[in-house]
Amino acid sequence: MTRFTGIIPPLCTPFRDDFTIDVDSLRRHLDVQLAAGIHGVFVLGSSSEVAFLPDRQRRVVIETTVAHVAGRVPVLAGCIDMTTLRVAEHIRVAEEAGADALVVTAPYYTRTHTAEIEQHFRLLRSRTELPIFAYDIPMAVHTKLDRAMILRLAGDGVLSGVKDSSGDEAGFSALLLGRRDRGLTDLAVFTGSELVVDLALRMGADGAVPGLANVDPAGYVSIFDRVRAGDLDGARREQERLLRLFAITSAAPPERMGRGSAGLGAFKAAMKMRGFIDNSVMAPPQLPLNDEELLSIKGTLTEAGLL
Amino acid sequence: MTRFTGIIPPLCTPFRDDFTIDVDSLRRHLDVQLAAGIHGVFVLGSSSEVAFLPDRQRRVVIETTVAHVAGRVPVLAGCIDMTTLRVAEHIRVAEEAGADALVVTAPYYTRTHTAEIEQHFRLLRSRTELPIFAYDIPMAVHTKLDRAMILRLAGDGVLSGVKDSSGDEAGFSALLLGRRDRGLTDLAVFTGSELVVDLALRMGADGAVPGLANVDPAGYVSIFDRVRAGDLDGARREQERLLRLFAITSAAPPERMGRGSAGLGAFKAAMKMRGFIDNSVMAPPQLPLNDEELLSIKGTLTEAGLL
Amino acid sequence: MTRFTGIIPPLCTPFRDDFTIDVDSLRRHLDVQLAAGIHGVFVLGSSSEVAFLPDRQRRVVIETTVAHVAGRVPVLAGCIDMTTLRVAEHIRVAEEAGADALVVTAPYYTRTHTAEIEQHFRLLRSRTELPIFAYDIPMAVHTKLDRAMILRLAGDGVLSGVKDSSGDEAGFSALLLGRRDRGLTDLAVFTGSELVVDLALRMGADGAVPGLANVDPAGYVSIFDRVRAGDLDGARREQERLLRLFAITSAAPPERMGRGSAGLGAFKAAMKMRGFIDNSVMAPPQLPLNDEELLSIKGTLTEAGLL
Amino acid sequence: MTRFTGIIPPLCTPFRDDFTIDVDSLRRHLDVQLAAGIHGVFVLGSSSEVAFLPDRQRRVVIETTVAHVAGRVPVLAGCIDMTTLRVAEHIRVAEEAGADALVVTAPYYTRTHTAEIEQHFRLLRSRTELPIFAYDIPMAVHTKLDRAMILRLAGDGVLSGVKDSSGDEAGFSALLLGRRDRGLTDLAVFTGSELVVDLALRMGADGAVPGLANVDPAGYVSIFDRVRAGDLDGARREQERLLRLFAITSAAPPERMGRGSAGLGAFKAAMKMRGFIDNSVMAPPQLPLNDEELLSIKGTLTEAGLL
């Protein structure tokens, strides 16, 4: 059984112009990430444009990643779909492709309920041997996972981990405390925020899944190492540098496009500028950044010493 | 080119205990609907548990329906998925299966924007010859379709229809007026509400897509016929009867399960009680109604003269 | 005991440049309304900028109105504040000033609950002899009134009426049906929408409280009269004319100002253009409409034959 | 000019059975707080039931507090109302009563806009000499304050401080960074959370306004002192102890009452159990805790060593 810890970037997915997976870029991006010292990779998370990928492209992403990583770090695979039977299909693919763990959200599109979400995780548990992470992302699924339910499912061996992208740091702190008070030492707890990673680690989180690590993996690894070494001031400074870098995600204004396009577009543009990938195209119907926005991103990267 | 009008029920999907499609029940349910005089069927809408159906089950639903209906009424097929490329895959299946029109929501899971939603419909338009209906269902996708965008897309030949399940009757009225003022006579406009069908028809809607028609198709056909015949009082009385019948959807309280399970569970239970289908099981992770709730539904059906 | 029925406009409040009440304009506006045949007036509702008025200005509005109307039609007074004790103070003022009925929302600012909202109305009932209308306006107070609670409170003599500005026409229809089924003939039910008045009356509503009647009271009186006379087509045409007129409320775009300012600013600008009031200034911190927006409103009024 | 720093509890307001202010209890509670070493008090914030207090009771609270504190620590006064002119009235009272600073939210009840919120603060600035804190509390007012606006207003001398109760710790971190990058050394930044105070201080916050300090002021003072002294582990342990104590706010379940009543009811019950105040009654229409809930709170206090 893999033990999960450290910086596990939610990988962006490089495309060719026809929206097939650019596997060369994907491998190069993986090399960049591994060279920076990341401790795992999370494919097919929200940052991967998983919501935009047809099933066969999803399979290419995970197969390419598992093959290229070749066991050096664990590979977590998002199994993102609306309800149990559809998620179960993605789980089967992830298993076949050799993923080390699965990441699953609450049901969405349907109007759900905590009792149903709990049922969802329990049923999926019965269909796979792989560790399951609960993915708490109300921004996407419009439901917040209930803390007592998570702890109950962890106690029953249903959940092996949590990726908390809810932005509720107080709730995250209470989750970590609940884990300790119940002795649930096997439950891995990760923050999905890129903006308070040092604080999450200080609170006892096992690690982070920061989207911005696609652009600067070394920065997040440095935060992790510094907190481990007790250099909290250094970790804070690094986090603040990355908080400034995060400004690239608002280069495109909300009047012009969705916050999804603006954020992922900025990540991909920066990844291309840094040479990690060849093509920053995003899957439809997302809109491309314009020249002015790209120039602003370039400026921010330069200030951050990344170009 | 099919012209769309009248009562087009969003069909519930009968399952066997293993959650495969109960095609015998589906055919029997279609016979019941056709015998009642409905003017079209909408498969793979929200009432079909489309969010719960794996792709191969979706295909069975649409193929079975198209074959069984055999051209007697148009078959609309929901192509419900998160973004453009994924929806495009469902469109291909619906085309192959012989659907007469496609029903498509705004993107979801991702944080979207009107400019991206518009792009979404335009790109899909370029991929199919079939009429596309925009499905306005903020309850599921958490975005309301912009009225000016709908009218613009209709003017450009991108949209052939709208199914408005937003519950915003004032906006619906403005949409109908906008259609008339712009001379968009080819745009079919349907209400997705089951509760104000007579009023929607009075405002100029072409028809309705009422979930409750799964339980009482004749009632909705009667409303349509009466409004056509100028019997507005009779239509109102019939709508009020159906409004009372709708109480079955809250037999299960919100403390116990999601409003999706409660509503669809009630429809399926009533369909079984009325002999339309054999099995009222719902796809996971939805919870089943309990005996007390089923008894309450039976009582309401009896009062309504449907048992 | 006054019986409430018909068109009861929620009066806008004319100000002088120092934001004191322009009582001359208020009286002139009342004369315009009464001459148009309205059946009551509602002062200190949301359209009055009640949220912007200090207590002493609120008192001036209601005293001026009661004195000027002089019993010709009933005067309803909004008692809009966050919780019970604060609302009770406004009730005392409204009683002293001679209002005929009180209009009260759910608690807001605080995170409330149906049991507390019910308690709120019951406590207020014990403090006044005047009829109390429940004001269902989730847009402002972020809570929807529970239908079963309203009917229970009406049955217990706590509520004498409802003004439903929730935009939920299906729920409104169910409320009217619930009233009939329980024999609550004393409960007056009004729609607060200006866009579906004919339909609300058709469903059995006693009347409407349309903000747009500040600009065109005769139009709404005509809808009421036509529905009463069975001329449903005529009523529909009139409602459609007013729906087009309602476009003035979006002359100012959402990028530039709040939807409150845009709507009330348009009403006041149109009232001034039509000579009903002298000054269209709005209370701070609302922003004024600009010349282009005012010109657009003028154009819409001209098209509507109102200038 | 007062410099604001440290632990500034948002005081709960003790009532007599007739809902007048229990000034003896208020003074005793102030003594408890001051003895614990708190660095300021915030009266008429959300925890004070300000939304429930008539104006004359608000005045008693602030006058009693200013007189009793007698300059030992600064007194911040909430001026909580819907819009500019109404807030201005509360400001006048707070000035007369001798408050040291004012705390003001965005407009509410009305549908507002950042341009209007900015106008709101600028207009209020022109009406008082006292420092103004922006109170960011979307839970109550349903709008999040824009970070760029806050920094702009601070740069222009409009705002002297921010109390951030939004729960958005990433945004809070960005605000602190923005303050530093712009050299806005005069802007006091406080977290309104009680659950991540040590982390907020670590990020550079000047202090905290924790509701739970009504129950355990010494705990929060200890966190502040420890962070100052560099004892981050000790601060974390203390914060975790208080996080466990916070469980009292969910003794009453969400099915039974609003989260406001449940939280403030728990604070007041605990304050009474600890002898700080005589009466734990809450203003209407809030519901009282029942015996079982009180017993649970007593148990939590005992475990925490506070009884």
From TrEMBL, chains A, B, C, D:
CDD domains: DHDPS-like (cd00408). Keywords: Lyase, Schiff base. InterPro entries: Aldolase_TIM, DapA-like, Schiff_base-form_aldolases_AS. The keyword Oxidoreductase does not apply. One of its GO terms (molecular function) is 4-hydroxy-tetrahydrodipicolinate synthase activity. Transmembrane segments: none annotated. Gene3D superfamilies: Aldolase class I. Its EC number is 4.3.3.7. Signal peptide: none annotated. It comes from the Bacteria. SMART domains: DHDPS. Belongs to the DapA family. This is 4-hydroxy-tetrahydrodipicolinate synthase. It comes from Amycolatopsis thermophila.
